[in-house]
Amino acid sequence: MSSPVALIDCNNYYVSCERAFDAKLVGVPVIVLSNNDGCAIARSAEAKALGIKMGDPIHHLREKVRTHGVRVLSSNYTLYGDMQRRVVAACAAFARDTEIYSIDETFLDLGGFEDRDLVAHAHAMRDQVRLWTTIPTCVGIAETKTLAKLANAAAKKDPSFEGVADLRDHAARQKVMHTFPVEDVWGVGGATALKLKGLGIETAGSLRDMPMKQARAVGTVVLERLVAELRGVPSNAVETIEPQRKGMAVTRSFGAPVTTLDSMMGTLSQYAMRAGEKLRNYGLVAGRLTAFFHTNRHKPERPQYGGSRTVALQPMTSDSLELIGAARRAAERAWRDGYAYTKAGIMLDDLVGADMRPQTLFEDDTGKRDRLMGALDEINGRFGKWTAVTASQGFRREWKLRSEMRSPAWTTSITEVPMVRA
Q: Where are the transmembrane segments (predicted)?
């Protein structure tokens, strides 16, 4: 029999992180904006009550912000990442193991705690997180991750659960299963939901009761495993090997338009550097690199152009300096003067494990460069991103993301630590 699984989810996470260090934000409508201060990606309960939706562009919200005194903040991912670490640390004593699913969600293996009242156990964990971080949470408990995700959603939406839903309880499971829309079940995409509704499957409960062969016919083995999870059978009993990545990308929009090739190479160099770091973290090498950039497609009245070129990486590599060189070759071939570019990126394809990389006949010894890349990763990991950079990245970075309303790095920068005077 498998161990119980819990999912702890931080409520309105980005807003809650901001409120932890600024009491003036408590009880008032707050929204946090996406990269380049574009649209709302997090909303307090008060902001949701005003009808502000996820993804609403900030320029559509100006009147509502002014009328209702909505506090608007730029995203502060350094703060949110560090607060996540603190949340996970607060949960550690309450679980045998933890698995971070996203920046605000963590799965917990409750094996070894089965003899306890797990609802009371979860409430104690929520209290610990609140004490250590001030962040409110909800917890879902069940036999599988899919059911724990379902339980968590119920705990968040249904006040009768008081923040903790345990779907191992038959009555609670029946209540949730027969009221939870099938399109909101974790892992059911929009196209699959339409197919299921066409078959009369409207709720999580009716999906659970779907014949397994029919599930495979409708949504391949993915839906079949999901149905199994809804029945309490963990899917990791079927698949324990993580699928190999086929590609990866680093892309961003700019805070200010880029109009020169030198400035564009500053952005692409930084993205190539980051792409190499990601490859090394996953133990992979790439066989092809694509560099692209384009103008603002939402302003058709302005001159439009988008360029991209792909170059082969021979030998296959994760060396950031090699990737920067390849990005320059691609960018020079795709570049056109006279345009204001607002987004660019690096894409890597043909990925294989570094230990499976095919050797070339005249390949140089890469030992020194491997050590150099390791040193760069260690320096930037220890002292902060972009502490050590290549000359082509530069230090001024006029194109960096717009972030005009970002809160201080309260927990990670000694110069921005809050001070109390008595």
A: none
- Nearest residue to 74 via CA among 402, 405, 399: 405
Q: Where are the beta strands (DSSP E) in 245-295?
A: 247-258, 284-295
H helices within 283-421, ranges in order?
320-334, 367-383
pLDDT band at 403 (very low <50, low <70, confident <90, very high): low
* Alpha-carbon gap, residue 330 to 326, rounded angstroms: 6
Residue type for position 42: A
pLDDT digit string, tens, across residues 10-53: 999 999 999 999 999 999 999 999 877 778 999 999 999 999 99
* Distance spanning both ends of the chain, measured CA to CA: 57
4, amino acid identity: P
Angle between helices 212-230 and 190-198 (to 10 degrees): 120
Q: What is the DSSP code (8-state) at residue 54?
A: T
CB 109 within 8 A of CB 68: no
Are residues 318 and 284 in contact, defined by beta-carbon separation less than 8 angstroms? yes
Identify the band that residue 291 occupies on the pLDDT scale cut at 50, 70 and 90.
very high
Cis peptide before 408 (omega within 30 of 0): no
Report the 10 Å Cβ neighbour count for 122.
26
Taking residue 101's Cβ as centre, other Cβ atoms within 10 Å add up to 14
* Cis amide linkage into residue 257, ω under 30° from 0: no
Q: What is the pLDDT of residue 239?
A: 40
